[in-house]
Amino acid sequence: MLKQLKLLYGDGFSEDERHRRRENIYSNIIESMQSLLSFASGSVSGLQLSEREVEARDDIMSEDQYPHRLSPTVVAALQLLWNSPMAQEASSL
């Protein structure tokens, strides 16, 4: 709540605060996709990953959970995997 008030009525976040929050968001994205992939591997049966999806999965699973930025490769992997039938099926369970 205080953060929202600061954004609405204050000067917003300092550059350092924005940088730290951005890293937290990146970390949450990577950790969430890693969790979804782990869950899907044990819960979603009958769906095969394409070769590109397997490579993307490997990229995400080996990604540092505390990145300072998301590389274009990681962003593309996240997009591909999120749109995959496996991820959609796992996220609907």
Structure overview:
This protein has 93 residues and is mostly helical. It has one domain. The protein is built from five helices and no strands.
The percent range for helix content is over 70%
Name the overall outline. elongated
Proportion of residues in extended strands: under 5%
Helices and strands, in order, run as: HHHHH
For the residues shown, what is the average pLDDT? 86
The total of beta strands comes to 0
Domain tally: 1
Distance from first to last alpha carbon: 31 Å
Explain the layout of strands and helices.
Blueprint: H1 2-9, H2 15-43, H3 51-61, H4 72-82, H5 85-92
Q: Short description, anyone?
A:
The chain is mainly alpha-helical and 93 residues long.
Question: Which features does this protein show?
Answer:
93 residues, mainly alpha
